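In this section we walk through a basic example: taking a raw amino acid sequence and producing a predicted 3D structure, encoded as discrete structure tokens. The instruction is simple. Fold the sequence below.
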Amino acid sequence: MFFYKFSFSILPAAFLDLTGPSEIKGVWKGSTTLPCAYVPVEDVVQQTLRWTVVHDQSSGTVFWRDASGDHVLLSEYRGRVSVPKDTPGNVSLHILNLEISDRGTYACQVTWRTLGRRAGGICGLSTVGPWLHLYPPAQCFPGTRTRGAVAGLLHCFSLTTPHRHVPHLPGPGQW
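The resulting token sequence is shown next.
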């Protein structure tokens, strides 16, 4: 007869929670940051980071970070997205040159592992995500312009928001 001894530790609840505000604003053709953060804990390290998006007709992984480095997997985001490297706990996605096609549901997912004498295993997985919506403000705020160019607003709502108001979007060719 064999006996196996298993041990594990429970991490503080705040560690496994990714956080971010319920709404952010940005300007079309400008840049914005989709906030995502966690509280770093001693002897626990981030193993992977993944930012995904679901658009009207498609979905995929925008950004992936692991031991091999940072990878932008969707070609339409290459050269436009980044995540800080030198700020522990800050895994926010920075997007440059915002496009209308960037609107969708974004999710930030992080896995962690423990450090110690034994081989570390994944001890945490948490996901949080903002909903990103872009549209020209002239459709919502008549007369708004920025230095001769059509401007846009970027709204980012938490996936946990109980009610979302989604404004009517103009069809192709209407703006």
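Looking at the output, two observations stand out. Helices lie at 13-16. Residues 19-158 form a domain with the Immunoglobulin-like fold (CATH 2.60.40.10). In the next section we compare this with other chains.
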